[in-house]
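Hey, I'm writing a tutorial for new members on how sequence and structure tokens pair up, and I'd like a real worked example in the thread rather than a made-up one. If someone can provide the structure for the chain below, I'll link this post from the tutorial.
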Amino acid sequence: MIATISDSTPVSRFERSTVNSSTVDASEPSDHELMLAVRAGKIARLGDLFERHHGALFGFFLRLTQQRALSEDLVQWVFYRILKYRHTYRDEGKFSAWIYHLARKVAADHYRKRALPTVDSENGDFADLLTDQSPGPSENAAYNDDVALMQQAMAQLPLDQREILVLHRFQNLQHAEIAQLLDCKEGAVKVRAHRALVALRDLYFKLRRGRLA
């Protein structure tokens, strides 16, 4: 996964380690059960959902916007909308799909109001930047340069392509889950994800060639 946060950067409460809903103890209520309780008027249970999901949502928005303060604000808007639209949550609904549906709406609303932000074998290095890496001391400088190029390339992608890459590569949603979010067929998601990855690769190597020129 791209390391967008340096060791010297202060970590906000949104970036601290949080509970992954897939690792929640079996004795704890599921996300679905918590959301049903919120829908029934037990608003305090929204705090439990916040603790489980705010870190992942922050990462989603940070990779879309590359702005920490804005990402924190957008996370807050998602939970505001969860509270506001709690009565629309369905009994058979999957909470993870629903929360990312709201997150996509929040991001889309933000970009409608403001201009897109800017950022002040060939597949080998590129593929490495899309997975967790721990470069040795001698490799850190080159790795950090490549990460910076990747961030620039991500920022230049159209929002729809950037979004599908973030959902699939960084938020680890399955193609079927993304298809549900985007209201399209799973095969279409696979095609769009592949095209977005190709576009990102091309931008990355274009930027790299420009830096080496």
